[in-house]
């Protein structure tokens, strides 16, 4: 179909603001359920948390993998945006770092579930992993630099290594109720502080 001046009419329109908000609310609800119950949680639980019908979820995300990938991307963006906001509002850069790492741990719960869902799509998972690194390593580095500049932590900490260490502490936590990964991560972040 032509638009009158010889060009093809665009079929994809930007989402309305209310549609974007509704989708973000749905993704927030799905993320909360995934953190509490894992990525295999029933869609009806996600729908109840979001205050929508299950049909609404399937209309936006036809498969569970579509929903998990969308939650993953949503959480990456939320985590990336949270870093500067936490630096601006926290009492100290170390406090901002600790709060950001707590958000990162929530994200890792979904990421581990994503790995299981996408086992058959190695290239797709690698693309998402690269996106995750590109967006989050610089944010973690900014938080570490601010805490080091304030004299709260050592200046020689590497963002990628810290994120990898936090990730390693979280591996397998969902399979063992006696293993409290979040508590170990808290101890790790507390241990970054320089003695005063």
UniProtKB/TrEMBL annotation:
The highest taxon in the source lineage is Bacteria
Any one GO MF annotation of this record: transcription cis-regulatory region binding
Question: Do the record's keywords include Iron?
Answer: no
Q: Does the keyword Transcription apply?
A: yes
Q: Which PROSITE patterns match?
A: HTH_TETR_2
Enumerate the residue ranges of region (Disordered).
1-20
Where in the numbering of this chain does the HTH tetR-type domain appear?
Answer: 20-79
Q: Which UniProt keywords apply?
A: DNA-binding, Transcription, Transcription regulation
Give the DNA-binding residue ranges: 42-61
Q: What name appears for this protein in its UniProt entry? A: AcrR family transcriptional regulator
């Amino acid at each position: 179909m032509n638009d009158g001046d010889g060009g093809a009419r665009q079929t994809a329109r930007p989402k309305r603001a209310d549609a974007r908000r509704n989708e973000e609310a749905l993704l927030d609800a799905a993320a909360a359920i995934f953190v509490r119950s894992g990525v295999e949680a029933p869609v009806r639980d996600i729908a109840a948390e979001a205050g929508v019908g299950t049909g609404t979820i399937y209309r936006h995300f036809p498969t569970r993998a579509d929903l998990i990938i969308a939650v993953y991307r949503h959480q990456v963006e939320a985590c990336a945006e949270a870093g500067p906001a936490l630096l601006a509002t926290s009492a100290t850069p170390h406090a901002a770092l600790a709060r950001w790492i707590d958000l990162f741990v929530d994200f890792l719960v979904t990421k581990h579930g994503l790995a299981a869902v996408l086992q058959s799509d190695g290239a797709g998972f690698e693309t998402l992993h690269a996106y995750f690194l590109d967006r989050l390593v610089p944010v973690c580095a900014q938080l570490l630099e601010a805490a080091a500049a304030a004299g709260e932590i050592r200046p020689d900490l590497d963002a990628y290594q810290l994120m990898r260490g936090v990730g390693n502490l979280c591996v397998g936590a969902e399979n063992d109720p006696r293993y409290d990964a979040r508590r170990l991560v808290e101890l790790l972040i507390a241990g970054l502080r320089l003695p005063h």
